[in-house]
Design brief:
CATH superfamily: Flavodoxin domain
Order of helices and strands: EHEEEHEHEHH
Shape: globular
CATH class: Alpha Beta
Bound molecules: flavin mononucleotide
CATH topology: Rossmann fold
Helix content: 25-40%
Number of domains: 1
Structural class: alpha/beta
Strand content: 15-25%
Radius of gyration: 15 Å
Number of helices: 5
Distance between the termini: 9 Å
CATH architecture: 3-Layer(aba) Sandwich
Length: about 150
């Protein structure tokens, strides 16, 4: 199975850590949107899209990348995020579906957040994602892997 994780992680590297845990299980290539050759997306059995949440939205670079993809039938995908508070994942799911992906599942985890007002109190969710969160990310990836290989 060939997997790609498209990830933007600019604040604390939280999303990158989650992507790497998933990537171990999926043996995935992890790339920033700007590193992805759009015509290569067809080569993957599974593509993940993840970032932190900023002002209640996925990172603009990830949104712009998915929004600009030519609409055509595509393969399996998943969506994930790290955030200070429970995020809304559906906007990215919708963008990926509009691009033609079959979005199999979503994953999110609370993570260290020092967004402006929270910085005054030292941030929230210090130390997260922690080992248990990364284990949950690996378990999520294992479930996806099983689904994709069963359907192959
Ligand atoms: C400018 C800014 C805005 C943020 N806005 C939100 C938000 O609206 N909701 C939320 O739950 N977390 C918010 N966060 C927290 C980030 O989503 C969280 O720290 C995330 O794990 C960052 O991922 P990264 O380290 O991979 O970039 C914000 C953080 C920053 C710096």
């Amino acid at each position: 199975m060939k997997a790609l994780i498209v990830c933007v992680s600019v604040s604390h590297g939280n999303t990158r850590r989650v992507a790497e845990a998933m990537g171990e299980v999926l043996e995935a290539t992890i790339a920033e949107p700007e590193q992805v050759e759009v015509s290569d997306l067809d080569r993957y059995d599974l593509v993940g899209f993840g970032s932190g949440i900023f002002n209640q939205m996925f990172h603009p670079r990830l949104r712009a990348f998915v929004r600009a993809l030519p609409k055509q039938p595509r393969g399996n995908a998943f969506v994930f995020a790290t955030s200070g508070f429970p995020p809304q994942l559906w906007p990215m799911t919708r963008l990926a579906r509009r691009a033609g992906f079959d979005v199999l599942d979503t994953f999110s985890v609370r993570a260290f957040d020092t967004w402006a007002p929270l910085r005054l109190v030292g941030g929230v969710n210090k130390g997260k994602p922690d080992a248990a969160d990364l284990d949950a990310a690996r378990a999520f990836a294992a479930g996806l892997r099983a689904r994709v290989t069963a359907g192959a």
